[in-house]
Amino acid sequence: MDSAFQPIFRGVWFHGKMRHIEQWEIVEIAQQKGKPVWGEGGPAIEQRKYMEKSAIWAVGLCLVLAGHGFEAEASHQSKPTEQPYRTAYHFQPPKNWMNDGGIGKWGLGNADPNGPMYFNGVYHFFYQYNPYSALWGNLTWGHSISYDLVNWVHLENALNPTDPFDINGVYSGSATILPEGEPVILYTGLDSKSRELQNLAVPKNVSDPLLREWIKSPHNPLMTATNEIDEYNFRDPTTAWQGPDKVWRILVGGLINGRGAVLLYRSRDFVNWTMSQTPFHSANKTGMWECPDFYPVSISSKDGIETSVQNADTKHVLKISFQDNGNDHYIMGKYVPETDTYLVETDFLDEVSDSRYDYGIFYASKTFFDAVKKRRILWAWIKESDSLSAAVEKGWSGIQSIPRSVLLDQTGRRLVQWPIKEIEELRENQVTFFNKELRSGTVIEVPGTITASQADVEVSFDFPHSKEAEVLDPIWVDPQLLCSQKNASVKGGIGPFGLLVLASKDLTEQTAIFFHIFATHNEKYIVLMCSDQSRSSLRQDVDKTSYGAFVDIDPLHEKISLRSLIDHSIVESFGGEGRTCITARVYPELAINEEAHLYVFNNGTQSVKISRFDAWRMKKAEMVLRIEEDSQLMSS
Predict the structure, then answer these.
(1) Which of 2, 100, 163, 293 is catalytic?
(2) What average pLDDT does the segment 80-94 reach?
(3) Can you give the pTM of this predicted structure?
(4) For burial by CB atoms within 10 Å, which of 183, 393, 433, 517 has the most?
């Protein structure tokens, strides 16, 4: 073939055999089928020039060829009945380990989403990946692209452990878009002695819309542990920001004499970095601080803001992933760029405030600024909660959360999160009802044509204005413990009430997401939100920990709202319009696929009213494996 014309995707599976196909054939097939070239419901590719958006060929390949007897390589996955826990609309690679192995009961190590960014019309997502196994190890950076953060094309690995400064693994890192418009990556590599070093990579061809190839800097490593910094706990550089002096800053997580800290580095050229003499922030009561994130949020606007913005209308968020407890905690404060000081409002693990992105399984999160839609997007990896042997049997491990927008709430006290708007494009078969009373002991199955194992549910409840709320005991300061003690099967006053998801017909298996309202001694009300996995599965080799948190709402003056995204083995729940979030992994034996059911329930003595209920079946997102260009595959 003439080297001047190199189609991006050269092979497809045709009735089980790889055969050659050219780009013009894709167009011809689409025309024969009477479909748009890129398939119904896809992005508005017609408005984009081919050379600017060539990445979308993979999505077109999947959408168009599926109805013409062709089968993209990504379709070679087990049938749903064989893979009941594989998600339909959460991001995950076709096989093997991704961003898991973490902190919990079954963990071996930890990892995180890396370097998300929006560049030249394409969303890029990098992630730690083991290309050889469903278990932790052989850490590389996987790479996928999207136009909508919902449908994805998996590309070749971006970074591999091939050099002395990363030979034992390409660990976490972040992407930064320089003022000239060039993206760069800072990442942690492990050398032959497993010391953690900070390195730089740049695109081989910045005009390539896919950014498929990355070159490691000849100056690597750029930063090494010095003085009292533990060289085996020195990792995860943040996205860089510029101060008024045009000097770049980044933070790196570290451990100094057993104390968790983030270290500030400065550079004028992104190659030569100097560490500040004192940590940017630290705390005695914590261990290693992983995966730091530092970014501004607007006090007055609902728009996200770029990472380098610093003015009187901003607060700055510092997020840390605590290796000791496996949770992502954040604090807020005022950043003074002239002195690079951070004046916090309340510190980590403060008795008054324990702010987390999510109170369930949600770790090593990372945000990026979407300049086109003026929003800040939050990702996190969601680890498996079943056994290592189950991961080997499934052939995969680890998924990503649904991307969430993150903003400062109206009170200025905390962040609110909400699934990105694009995910709603997967909704279909809506079920809606209003003003339905839930009497004590009621369990009602949601009618209609939704698939309960693959759904999006929104419900709001009216406060019953009853005097029967249980008084909150002052010793009940741990909401997770309270949710375990007063789970969905324990009758209360006002609550528990909410949803039973991924439930079997006879309710032998069920995951309950519910509210419980307590009264205080000063005649106010406290809303507890729980995710109860105690009856989620008949299996004995899964973690059934329940999770809980208080929701900062006043039920006397606002509705009690819940949204749950249900996707086979994950339930992401958002209480109080995103003020409290809880993510859980569940592995039912009975309530899988079409055998899963959805209920609303009330196990309190007092009736509650559903003011509005909406549920949708969620269509499957496109997760397309790149078609190999390798001539060896072509001849097989």
Answers:
(1) 100
(2) 85
(3) 0.86
(4) 517
